[in-house]
Design a protein that fits this description.
305 residues; alpha/beta; 2 domains; 7-stranded mixed β-sheet; HET; DUF8212
Length: 305
Amino acid sequence: MLRLIHTTNLTFEEFEKLSAPSYAIVSHRWGHDEVSHQDFLDGKKREGYGWTKIVKACEIARAQDLTWLWIDTCCIDKKSSAELTESINSMYRWYYHSHDCLTLLPDIDLTDEDPGFSEQFRQSSWFTRGWTLQELLAPRRLLFFNENFQHVGDKYHRLQDIVAATGIDKYYLLGMSNVQEASVAERMQWASLRESTRTEDAAYCLLGLFDVNMPLLYGEGAKAFLRLQLEIIRKTDDESIFAWWQDPVQSGSWQGLLAPSPRAFAVPKTESVKVLKVQSRQPYSMTHKGLRLKISRHNTTAAQL
């Protein structure tokens, strides 16, 4: 179920995913005065930047001849755990199927014609958040707007800046290569230096990037990222998931074959490493005793880790 806002009437309507009309979708960073689903229904918080974002996004969508808009702040009833789980597991697809993704950058006060715009754009906090990674990669049309809601370019025209800010290859950014073709470690590396407010969201924001689904258990902390890795292992035999690194000084007591967080996939500053997919061999499997795989060293032997 996809709940959309009518961009003229500012009312909700719900659609089945397969029958949803063309819609714009909003990518943004959350502030302190966001309008929740219940606030929207009750007519509350009609002042402040949270409401202004909704109104301005509707105006921009109407200018693109789009009648419908989705924004996560009020289009998801977060009091319903079932709806929240469904929404987060569906979100990558919602961004992918949108007609336009409207990316709001309130920390940019320049226009794309002003000197220094490129540097300010690259330093936007939007490029540092966990959730915005999928919002960058999934949409086919992604438009950027500054603090005054002025259009300052799209993903194609700002490509050089985006590559510089994220380190993501242009072919993935433009959809010329499927994100799923990147190795697990490479996708993890894209997320490695991004931050999320809640520990669990470091894993949940990557579900679409790895095309996996799993229930949300807020309160489980770092276990969420371990669950994510186990789901990835069930789906793929890409051994680069084990190609993580962690500074021994910072790792503390952590031990295990799986990484403690996406940050462990960041390339060390002292290294020049390009993570490649390991040549295919007999698939590994997860058993009740741990991971089972075959490793070649002179003669092929079975190993359990």
